[in-house]
Design brief:
Largest sheet of chain B: 2 strands, antiparallel
Helix content of chain A: 25-40%
Chains: A alpha/beta (about 425), B mainly alpha (about 290), C mainly alpha (about 325)
Order of helices and strands of chain B: HHHHEEHHHHHHH
Distance between the termini of chain A: 23 Å
Mean pLDDT of chain B: 88
Oligomer: heterotrimer
Strand content of chain B: under 5%
Radius of gyration of chain A: 22 Å
Strand content of chain A: 15-25%
Number of helices of chain A: 12
Radius of gyration of chain B: 19 Å
Largest sheet of chain A: 7 strands, mixed
Helix content of chain B: over 70%
């Protein structure tokens, strides 16, 4: 976000927001009078903004499965405050316009207590304003830097997955020390790509390295080879992160381009290959290259009992594929966020003594008060630290090397590696 | 990389893109030329071809070439059959009303996408090329299969041309394209011709998809790009002109490739897009079209 | 036609009145949906002027919508303009974009026009990405709630938003009605029906098509600008090809060349998606089948077919 000169005038904004918030409460109370006095034995209803169709569908399918598995575990253990929990899944088509409509539908028609699940950052940014107006907690599972950058609002939180800024900052030292200091970055001409560009460049410079070339690829591209000659020959590390259905083409074409000849060290974000079998045809080239993984796709030796429990509950085998179809590879590096976010909701609601929509504000404040989240069944990806001021969680990152078609973790960052100064303090903003 | 090799690579990529464009456009050229309907679902026939190719290659044992050959036969037949059905059940009942056809084919687009999503899934899946051959230049490597696609495109286009010019059915199609009423008066069953053309156009899209899917991947949303690109190619080339279609594909492919040597990727795409638009602005009938109202 | 003047005016005012009354009757969810539909149907009405009345099949209207959205968004959120002037700038942005595109694209007609507008819109979409440091590309940005106040009206408040959307909708609807019943509007229709004949009668087709396209872009820009201010989000998705095809679909569904058709089409399409996704996870299939059924039953769109069969006076 640092590129956009957003004018912030806290006093005027605060005043108007206060007024708007006041009228909003009245409207909400008038709209469903019966709901406010909901019986405490009624199920807690959570809305899930699901990328069932559109370009996020490969993620959406696994986010749904993960959330369903977490829900089962949650309800088997007595639900939230002794109340059973229901999740309403609603497709947003991975579209920001429909995303905002879905938040509306889940909040008003679905009478949900909170909404979670969105991954694609355009959906998050498109939906957050409406969630704020509706005064419904909106918990995103997106890894975007939008929440922590301060452009969303008090009702929007990201307690289940580390943001991109933290991820790249945490990994840059290892890349600089082990792979090389002269980096060429290939990334989508998307905001997601800009975050990588800006934060990785800064982090590399802090390590005494430099980014020698930036290659931003427009999303309309289906073939990439003709842009590859832009990679300068002095490049020591090629950093790639791509999203969308054409990513596999990119990696294959990279392999064809370099072939058997010399090539720089290659460091990629697993986003380029989520839901793709890394041992598939045309990807032999990836052998020996490195990837960031939010959560290691292949079961690692010495994995925690929580990790194996989570894997079994979601139905993922040791290679990160569906237990029912080995060709169906999961989005393992990201989907834990749906699981962990659900358990953050449970912890937050229990801490707030949540009864119904009247307690939404207390629920948000309870999450803001959270700090440590230890490795547990609720947090199988690892321990985390939540920053209540920026509404962003920080966890460990993994760097894995492809060896014989499997991703083997070679480095795990500490949480401190990924911390950065706050860019916003949501707790000072009115509800 | 030095300028020379960069240009060489860009030119080769441009040629491959031209081949891909010509392949995807030839089916639409036929449908649009003869029937004059905007078929928004054309890209979905391409997608169905690619997705079916994945199913066929995954289920045929033995070397990849065998499965690929099977896909080249099976996919166009199935997709052509679906198209003929759609023509008979829907488009014919709409009397090929241009506006109603747009809505109907958008409806078909949704149906095909949902079918692919439900039955095939949301993942992008690779289909193995029939052979694995790489060309190693001193500066870069290149996929031999991509060059084979260029050759296959040339062969297929020649075949379609022969069909149109030499065969009886080609003559009937051209007659229908030229003047529907007269064709009817001469005893041509225009309904059958239309169904045939629609099926043939879809089958050609499927053949193109099978050829192209090893260098891209099968994905349920992959139909959008081929749809737009093939419309652009067909109209730049001039309606109903196969020669124009090919020339437009080469023009767009090469300009897209070569512009990318000089500008950053997104800027290159913007300039190439505007360039193509301006060709039409100053030659609205297309490269080989007749001036008409 | 003149004999039905009262009925025509009554019908359109009646629709506006019913929409105003619905605010007090409908549950909150549908109130909010209607606000969105009314704003987006202004986009569709704009498309209808170009396509339904002037006969220009454009595949690039997302550019005009996005011009309004981005002109307003950039000025209000990034340059700190007040929302009122920002809104006007957005409306002007849509009209100017249409003027610029029209000057070049109207050298062509028919399918070539379709492709030229498509390519210009695609270039516009890519430009938004190219200026990513400013626009945040596909992710877009939020317009602060405090900035979304036009003439003292807070557009983030549900009631204010609904009636602001209704006001915009009513204004656009009545303007469309006035346009199509005006001499200029009749010339536009004549252009659609037979450009050559109109030319011989002394009307310059280029000039009238340009008028039609600019009026169309103006409404599209107004819709985009209002959408940004009312819902607080600006993003490149709205400039993508999908948002050029949607208004075409809405107009065809409701009935091209009918004043109320665009609204009806937008409404039907919205609820097709919304209701079907409540019923099944394979909701695209339901939407697709419904579109086929609708078009088989009403080839000229809902109101177009109604006009053909029962109400020939419908404008």
């Amino acid at each position: 976000m640092k590129d956009i000169p957003i004018t912030r005038t806290p006093s005027r904004r605060g005043l108007l927001k206060g007024i708007a918030a006041g009228t909003g409460t009245l409207a909400a109370a008038g709209a469903f009078p019966g709901f406010i006095q909901a019986q405490s034995s009624e199920p807690i209803r959570l809305g899930f903004q699901l990328h069932r169709t559109g370009i996020g569908a490969a993620y959406g399918r696994w986010y749904e499965r993960t959330a369903q598995a977490a829900l089962q575990v949650l309800n088997d253990a007595g639900g939230i405050n002794g109340r059973p929990v229901e999740i309403l899944f609603e497709d947003d088509g991975t579209d920001p316009k429909r995303g905002a409509e879905v938040v509306e539908k889940l909040a008003t028609q679905g009478r949900c207590d909170a909404v979670f699940g969105a991954l694609f950052s355009n959906v998050v940014v498109g939906s957050a304003p409406r969630a704020g107006e509706l005064r419904i907690p909106y918990l995103v599972c997106s890894e975007g830097h939008h929440v922590a950058s301060g452009i969303t609002n008090r009702w929007t939180l990201q307690p289940g997955i580390t943001d991109v800024k933290s991820q790249v900052q945490a990994m840059a030292p290892w890349v600089a020390a082990n792979l090389g200091k002269k980096v060429t970055m290939v990334f989508p001409d998307y905001a997601f790509g800009y975050d990588h560009r800006d934060f990785f460049t800064a982090a590399m410079e802090a390590q005494g390295g430099e980014v020698v070339e930036l290659i931003a690829i427009p999303p309309t591209e289906t073939s990439f080879t003709r842009h590859l000659p832009r990679i300068p020959s002095e490049t020591e590390v090629l950093y790639h992160v791509m999203v969308g259905p054409a990513v596999l083409t990119f990696v294959k074409e990279l392999g064809e381009f370099y072939g058997t000849g010399d090539h720089p060290e290659i460091f990629g974000f697993i986003d380029s290959l989520e839901a793709v079998d890394i041992a598939g045809p045309g990807l032999e080239f990836l052998e020996g290259t490195h990837f960031w993984e939010g959560h290691p796709r292949c079961l690692q030796p010495g994995a925690s009992e929580h990790e194996t429990f989570y894997r079994a509950a979601v139905g993922v085998d040791d290679n990160g594929a569906s237990v029912s179809d080995a060709r169906e590879v999961s989005t393992y590096a990201h989907m834990f966020s749906a699981w962990e976010t659900l358990f953050v909701i449970k912890a937050g609601m229990e801490a707030a003594g949540y009864q119904g929509p009247d307690d939404r504000q207390a629920f948000v404040e309870a999450i803001e008060a959270m700090t440590e989240m230890p490795l547990s069944r609720e947090h199988p990806q690892g321990d985390k630290v939540f920053n209540g001021r920026t509404h962003q969680v920080f966890g460990h990152q993994h760097i894995s090397k492809v060896a014989e078609g499997r991703l083997e973790v070679v480095h795990t960052t500490s949480i401190e590696d990924g911390l950065y100064p706050d860019e916003v303090d949501y707790t000072t903003q009115p509800f | 990389m030095d300028f020379g090799p960069f240009l060489l690579l860009a030119t080769m990529e441009g040629l491959v893109m031209a081949a891909v464009l010509a392949l995807t456009a030839v089916g639409l050229s036929l449908v649009f030329g003869v029937m004059r309907v905007v078929n928004v679902a054309h890209g979905e026939f391409f997608m169905l071809g690619a997705v079916l190719a994945w199913f066929v290659t995954a289920s045929v044992p033995g070397p990849p070439a065998l499965g690929f050959a099977a896909a080249l036969v099976v996919c166009p037949l199935i997709v052509g059959g679906i198209a003929a059905l759609a023509d008979r059940a829907i488009l014919k009942r709409l009397d090929y009303d241009p506006e109603a056809t747009i809505v109907a084919t958008i409806g078909l687009l949704y149906i095909f996408q949902q079918a692919a999503l439900s039955l095939y899934g949301p993942d992008a899946r690779p289909v193995q090329a029939p052979f694995d051959w790489r060309l190693q230049f001193p500066w870069f490597g290149y996929s031999g299969y991509k060059l084979a696609v260029v050759a296959a495109a040339a062969l297929l286009l020649l075949g379609v041309r022969q069909l149109l010019v030499r065969s009886r059915i080609g003559l009937v199609m051209r007659a229908t394209q030229y003047d529907r009423e007269t064709a009817t008066a001469f005893g041509i069953d225009v309904d059958r011709v239309y169904a045939l053309v629609f099926a043939l156009g879809a089958a050609l899209a499927a053949v193109a998809a099978v050829l192209i899917v090893p260098i891209q991947q099968a994905h349920y949303l992959m139909g959008g790009d081929p749809l737009l690109l093939s419309f652009i190619v067909v109209i730049i080339g001039g309606l109903g002109s196969l020669r124009g279609t090919v020339l437009a594909a080469v023009l767009i492919g090469l300009s897209d490739g070569i512009v990318s040597v000089f500008f950053s990727p997104t800027l290159a795409k913007i300039l190439a897009t505007l360039l193509v638009a301006l060709v039409l602005v100053f030659r609205p009938q297309g490269l080989f079209g007749q001036r008409a109202a | 036609m003149t004999g039905h003047r009262g009925a025509i005016l009554g019908l359109h005012l009646g629709v506006i009145g019913v929409l105003a009354a619905l605010y007090f009757v409908l549950p909150a969810y549908h109130v909010s949906n209607l606000a969105r539909i009314m704003v987006l149907s202004v986009f569709a009405m704009g498309y209808n002027i170009a396509f339904g009345y002037t006969g220009l099949l454009s595949l690039g209207h997302a550019l005009f919508f996005a011009s309004g959205l981005y002109a307003t968004g950039t000025l209000v959120q990034l340059a700190g303009w007040p929302a009122g002037p920002g809104l006007l700038a957005g409306i002007a942005g849509g009209a100017l974009a249409a003027l610029a595109v029209g000057l070049l694209a109207l050298r062509t007609t028919g399918v070539a026009f379709m492709i030229v507008t498509l390519m210009f819109a695609q270039a516009g979409y890519l430009l938004i990405l190219y200026f990513g440091p400013l626009t945040r590309g596909d992710e877009g940005y939020v317009i602060d709630r405090a900035s979304r106040v036009v003439a003292g009206l807070d557009l983030s408040d549900d009631r204010t938003r609904y009636f602001a959307a209704l006001a915009l909708f009513a204004l656009a609807l009545l303007a469309c009605l006035a346009l199509v019943r005006s001499p200029t509007g009749r010339v536009l229709v004549a252009m659609r029906e037979n450009a050559e004949r109109s030319r011989m009668l002394g009307y310059d087709p280029f000039r009238y098509r340009l008028i039609g396209l600019v009026a169309s872009g103006l409404l599209a820009g107004a819709s985009g600008a209002a959408y940004g201010l009312m819902f607080g989000y600006v993003g490149a998705t709205f400039a993508s090809i999908q948002y050029s095809i949607l208004p075409l679909l809405w107009v065809l569904l409701g009935g091209a060349g009918t004043v109320l058709g665009p609204f009806l089409g937008t409404l039907v399409m919205f609820y097709l998606v919304d209701l079907s996704s409540s019923v099944t996870t394979a909701h695209l299939m339901v939407v697709g089948l419904a579109l086929l059924a609708l078009v088989l039953f009403a080839r000229k769109g809902l109101l177009g077919s109604l006009r053909e069969r029962a109400l020939p006076w419908l404008p």
